[in-house]
Here is the input.
Amino acid sequence: MTGSPGTRLIVGPFNRVEGDLEVTLDLADGVVAEARVTAPLYRGFEQILLGRPPTDALVIAPRICGICSVSQSVAAARALRGLAGVVPPANGRLAADLIVAAENAADHLTHFVLFFTPDLARACYADRPWFETARRRFAANSGEASRLLLPARTRFLHLMGLLAGKWPHSLALQPGGVTKAIDRGERMRLLAILAEFREALETHLFADRLERIAALASPAELDAWADAAPLDRGDFRLFLAIARDLGFERLGRGPGLFAASGSFDLFRPGIWSDGAHGEFDPAEVVEDVASAWMNGSTAAPFSGVTLPAPDKVGAYTWCKAPRLGGRVAEVGALARQVVDGHPLALALVGRSGGGAVLDRVVARLVELARLIPAMEAWVGALVPGEPFCVAANVGDGAAAGLVEAARGTLGHWLTVRDGRIGGYQIVAPTTWNFSPRDTAGQPGALEQALIGTPVRPGDAAPVAVQHVVRSFDPCMVCTVH
Amino acid sequence: MPQDRTFNVLWLQAASCGGCTMSALAAEDGGLMRALGRFGIRLLWHPSLSEESGAEAVAILDDVAAGRVALDGLCIEGAVLDGPDGSGRFQMLSGTGRSMKDWIKTLAPRARHVVAIGSCAAYGGVPSAGINPTDAVGLQFAAWEPGGALGGHFRSASGMPVINISGCAPHPGWVVETLAALALDDTNPDDLDTLGRPRAIADHLAHHGCSRNEFYEFKASAARPSDRGCLMENLGCRATQAPGDCNLRRWNGFGSCTDGGFTCINCTSPGFESPAGPFQETAKVAGIPVGLPVDMPKAWFVALAALSKSATPQRVRANAHADHVVVPPARRPPKLP
Here is the structure.
């Protein structure tokens, strides 16, 4: 049951996250002293994939997740591509980038409107000066932001109808490119869809040009932009006013190591910690199973196995613990923008000392503002009549496919033997962020971020804890798969 | 039609990917909440949409379980996990110490209607593929077998079996229209097919309205991904067998699977997740596809296919093997009588 025997608080079902989540908090002196994050659903995709024809991964893997579906597709397609030795034509690459970017952009908007901001409209904030505005704009189900921006999201996803047949769960993304060639008329429709979405974002979310948001270069510039108009001029501005009042720049500090595999030739790959950039090397990834209901031992994904052990003593989640060179990493939009060297993102994590609730939400919206203009350019670069796909024959061997999903770095490690899938290991963004303690006792990124979060006496669902958890935009169905 | 009665829906995610919710959220005409609201449908709680979290959410479930709050529709998205060893522990409803299987069995008898959202909840779906590591089943079927989590004889308070809005993921319109018909008391057992699917959807085939129809008629077949030709002969398309009005309406404004250039995997049917061969290849015996169009005698198919191939216009043949129109239709003035 939800409740607090002594100083322990178990929070669940944790909604407005994708999938199932339970958080166990040990409290001391009015703050979280220790946190344990439980992913309570196991479906076994890595077992389901074994023995199947390799290209079946293009059907099965996307169905790990309904919100990062095409990211899962791309990871699978890239792993298969590695075994087919093919290079997609330029149109195929651009179309695939558009499909992934559309998912990332739609997910960022979904997170802000549906998952994160409704908590700012909770009755517990009724005494704040911004509450009436927050209630009007952000209230779950009835808020103006969702009434205006969800239809805009629906219209934006028409891009998926044109490029990928449908979303979620498309088979358009193939090792050799994409199955749908865009003709000249469809190219104009894509531009129209992007223009309409830009208009919705610039009207309701930002109340400013996307380029202006993307160019904000420091916390001082961000503050100045926020103060330049009344707080109801754009939901981003309203969020910033609330975040300042609630101290989001100090809440939920992450582990401080950021990792990203690079995306679209737009955001660079790499790692960042303590002010220093470095290389992201997938060979340094291991998964530790010390706290997971899994048998086996710490292993690199190519040699990893998935053996559920529901009665394992000392375990508390189905989630394995990925580590990068032995360290806990945070992935996601903030990681991407920090690694890419975006000046605002770098300054924010410099100030918070490793990423905070404010930093994560701001990075997501800055990324959204950067993605749409890039997508406009990619549509302009499509050349109708030129190929979108080449044939691909997948052979035996081992290959990895990495992609930046909305929530961060996603990797598929595939082994094919005798024309069948012999090994398939998936490390998803929230596997990184919501991992449990490892053999060395290191808590995962969220487990670290929750430490010090204030909890009022008798509060069974502490709102600050909810802000920290949702700031990561967790996708629990990807986490355990 | 103004609706003054409220139709309460409780929506839970069992072993799902969340994709059915994501699909439904892209409902046209002003968004999901307004599309449902027009019919008086109100969400008591939904895991992605509601404010209530933790103890507040559990209180809602407790109220429904105890009969303190009337439940018109229990919508379950995702398969029900029976494992390990019948315990249901592969999915615990967080914060409650109880399995999702247990919650569903508690809540289902309280509901006027029980609705399976998507093929996982209907038949088991993708989690039940392969070795089915979690003993995943649907609410009232395990693939083609009646049974599932609630049993083949289960009837909700309305006397209806579980209503299966199959599809992976289902079209948002299927969800909205099926719930709307329930809210208007406009659904009878006869409106469902033998697999619990609304016949309004399932009496059609995904093939109906396919934009590749001219290629199908002439058996001008795609040979590789992105070809414009018919996907049935080589690339595994099951649209001529798959129930659904998929190509009679648009997905995400403009699309459909076959319009997107890829094969129909018959995702509205039980067992679609475990085909005999690769999804994207057509199984054949002696060059004849094993999965023929439904209701079509094999001899007729073979004869018609041979005839139509011999009659294929050069334009259709050329375009079938390209990703764009390489030979446009001839331009000729109409013949005078």
Remarks:
- Chain A has 18 helices and 15 strands.
- Chain A has one domain: 8-480.
- The longest strand of chain A covers residues 408-417.
- Confidence is low (pLDDT under 50) at residues 1-5 of chain A.
